[in-house]
Automatic annotation (TrEMBL):
Residues 83-96 have a biased composition (Basic and acidic residues). This is Methyltransferase like 24. It holds the Pfam family Methyltransf_22. Residues 124-335 form the Methyltransferase domain. InterPro entries: Methyltranfer_dom, METTL24.
Length: 368
């Protein structure tokens, strides 16, 4: 009887102990499963618990990365807001990618000019010359008043006033002169007649005359700045020593950067047959976006420096450059030919054309 009671008591205690162990194990496993993510259908539960620590570390790294990304996005948004709200927003939207720090609105440089179709299937010089001469002698916009003719006549009797600027209120130059914020660039080789430059300087414009024949690097004279410098279609190579002591030529984009100028109201150039390659460079690099009016003397007695090809191809190239100028919003408003010049067109007498024409264009979309 005593043994039976002892056995019953041991069994009862053993049952209570097993029940307690079972409950503890159940509670522990239930708590662990709730903290851990549910395993995939193909994943073993033990493997899930082993990956738990690695997943926790990954979550902390992801959280830190997201916080850094949000911080960077806030900074980028701030910079974009400054650009978007800046005064040059509209001008920048109308242009392509930037090309230099001082000229953020310039177009991306190109490598070549797209040639226009031939004037006729015969590819003859006669047809090409007829199209070209008709184009350069037909003004595309009217402009009144013109400034420069009276100044030239006052400076030298009998002068016809080939170099003129447009002071029509529709365009920006007249307003820039009134506000005394106009800037003039004049390029030439040994130029004697600077009547237009003096007129604009007296009107309150900042006038820079560039002539590589000067003996001094910079000189202020008659309300104008004179610089021993000229424009070219390429920058000089530092490996090549200049042949002449005072020779110094640079691309217009380089000159603008060197002088810290963002725009030029009037660009006047008489480059003695280098104008075609210089004009090509200005078009390819998008520098003309910074120019309000372009005054250019064209020399037609030969192809020009580094312009190759037979005669019809040369004239087609000339015409293509001027059409590119038109696509860049420049419109011809004044034409002048010098009757004292010989009537030579590529060393020939073609359509009785003069060997030199002075043309004036206005950038109809230019808003400095």
């Amino acid at each position: 009887m005593g043994r039976e009671r002892l056995t019953l008591g041991l069994l009862l205690r053993l049952g209570i102990l097993l029940t307690t162990v079972y409950v503890c194990v159940h509670v522990y496993l239930d708590t662990s499963w709730r903290r851990a993510p549910a395993p995939l259908a193909f994943e073993h539960p033990i493997q899930s618990r082993q990956n738990l620590g690695q997943q926790s570390r990954t979550k902390r790294v992801s959280a830190e990365t997201e916080e850094q990304d949000r911080s960077i996005k806030r900074r980028i948004s701030y910079v974009r807001t400054l650009k978007k709200d800046g005064p040059a927003k509209k001008r920048d939207e109308n242009r392509e990618a930037p090309s230099s720090p001082l000229h953020p609105h310039r177009k991306t440089p190109r490598w070549h000019i797209d040639l226009e179709p031939w004037a006729s299937e015969s590819h003859s010089l006669e047809e090409e010359a007829k199209r070209f001469l008709s184009y350069i002698t037909t003004p595309q916009v009217s402009c009144s008043p013109l400034a420069g003719e009276e100044a030239a006549q006052e400076g030298s009797k009998g002068t016809t006033g080939a170099w003129v600027v447009c002071l029509d209120p529709k365009y920006s130059l007249a307003h820039r002169i009134q506000s005394k914020h106009c800037r003039i660039y004049s390029f030439g080789l040994g130029v004697d007649d600077r009547s237009l430059e003096r007129f604009l300087a007296r009107s309150g414009c900042e006038v820079h005359c560039f002539d590589p024949s000067l003996k001094q690097p910079h000189l202020q004279q008659a309300e104008m700045w004179l610089h021993r410098l000229s424009v070219d279609w390429r920058d000089p190579s530092p490996a090549i020593v200049a042949q002449r002591q005072y020779a110094n030529t640079k691309k217009l984009a380089t000159i603008l950067n060197d002088f810290g100028h963002r725009q030029v109201d009037v660009l006047k150039a008489d480059m003695e047959s280098a104008e075609w390659k210089i004009l090509e460079n200005l078009l390819l690099e998008g520098v003309l976006d910074s120019v309000g009016q372009l005054l250019l003397e064209l020399h037609l007695h030969w192809a020009g420096f580094e312009v190759a090809g037979d005669d019809p191809s040369v004239v087609r190239y000339w015409f293509s450059l001027l059409k590119e100028l038109e696509r860049n919003n420049f419109r011809l408003f004044h034409v002048q030919n010098d009757p004292a010049k010989p009537h030579l067109f590529l060393h020939k007498n073609v359509l009785n054309a003069s060997s030199a024409y002075t043309l004036s264009w206005v950038n109809t979309q230019w808003k400095p």
